Amino acid sequence: MSSEYLPGLAGVPATKSNISDIDGEKGVLAYRGYDIRELALKSSFEETALLLLDGQLPTREELDEFDQQLRGERRVKYNIREIMKYLPSTGHPMEMLQTAVASLGMFYGGDEIFSDGYQAEDDYFIHSMSVKIISRMATIVAMWQHVRNGYDPIEPRSDLSHAENFLYMLHGRDPDPFEARIIDACLVLHAEHTINASTFAAMVCGSTLASPFLVIAAAIGTLAGPLHGGANQRVVEMLEEIGRPENVKDWLDMKLAEKEVIWGMGHREYKTKDPRAIVLQKMMVEWIERKGNLSPMFETALALEEACEKELGPKGVYPNVDYYSGILYTEMGIPADQFTPIFAVSRIAGWMAHWREQLSDNRIFRPTQIYTGEPAREYVPIEKR
Ligand code: COA
Predict the structure, then answer these.
(1) What is the pLDDT of residue 262?
(2) What is the C-alpha to C-alpha distance for residues 18 and 29, in angstroms, rounded to an integer?
(3) What mean pLDDT value characterizes the chain?
(4) Is 312 touching ligand 1 by the criterion CB < 6 Å?
(5) Which of 17-21, 93-97, 311-315 shows the lowest mean pLDDT across its residues?
(6) Where does residue 183 rank: exposed (0-12), middle (13-18), buried (19+ CB within 10 A)?
(7) In the chain, what are the domains?
(8) If you placed Cys at 339, which of 37, 232, 310, 324 could pair as Cys (CB 3.0 to 4.6 Å)?
(9) Which ligand 1 atom is at minimum distance from the Cα of 268?
(10) How far, in Å, from the CA of 144 to the mean position of ligand 1?
(11) How much is the average pLDDT of 243-256?
(12) Site to substitute for ligand 1 among 234, 317, 318, 320, most atoms within 8 A of C-beta
């Protein structure tokens, strides 16, 4: 057995998976073999989620059935709303989301996990849990926008798609079709990304046969950090701090001299520009063509990307998915602290797919360590220390 220690498990395979694949040199990401650039243009979140869960593009009937199931599971129990009301409005929405999703488990169970091995009939249980959680994650994130401001949340509508209903519940008005299309594409783009930190957390928790709500709560906590999903919020705060494109050079020189991280840049897997960032950047251009440019944020981001290319490009550090997503959400009037929860509303599809894959051939994760502590020594009574 190899005892080589690789910090951050960089390059260490943690599992065998057929869900998604990254070519970090060419900058390609595919879900179940389908390039995400094509999925972002042609698919919907509902279809992509089912593709991730089941492994195949669904037929029209399968997609309609799944869509109806999601629409039917949008409401959350009154008690969840009450729990949310008692959370402080100053808390981060990711903490609220983790609390609310873990609380869902108290109401919807999910403990009947298979200690006796995975059977074909377990697919039904896994599917129904996936529908429940995927659908309600969007509801909870949108509800929080109102609950934290002291208002009653807006009831979900069953005549809208997943993305449309999310925007409707968030903003409280009929969604603009173009904005709904952009959100839908963002949900497709963020839905899955091989064994990233939050997916790994879900797999580790799932491998203990914990309930799916706890599995997802573990993943939400892991996504929250600024080195992972929390970066999208930091990017917008960073661009606001820079202010205008002409400030980029001095700002960047200062940050690099202080060895600070440039948010939204760099990725363990990509040594070129993240393909999702390319799609998001194109969507940003389309947005400006249709709606005009409301702030200098996009120009500042372009200038920063150009300046970073000279400084960080030689290290293989280029924009990642978080670089442009927050700018789009800002233009839609979404507060910055809701960006990472929106990431979770999408990534839930990948987490559930990996949970299912983990259970289908489960062995509890239990890595080893290289002990660097004291050798065996005798206990000293407290009065003799
Ligand atoms: N800003 C400045 N320098 C960066 C950088 C960034 N965002 N990302 C990587 N680098 C530099 C590192 O300092 C290191 O330089 P060195 O070789 O001179 O020491 C080199 O690039 C390699 O980076 P490393 O930290 O080993 O990469 P990693 O794979 O461990 O980390 C991230 C990957 C994503 C954690 C890292 O790129 C990062 O912190 N990015 C910003 C946060 C972010 O946007 N996260 C979202 C990811 S989707």
Answers:
(1) 95
(2) 13
(3) 94
(4) yes
(5) 311-315
(6) buried
(7) 20-224+338-360 (1.10.580.10), 231-331 (1.10.230.10)
(8) 232
(9) 29
(10) 32
(11) 96
(12) 317
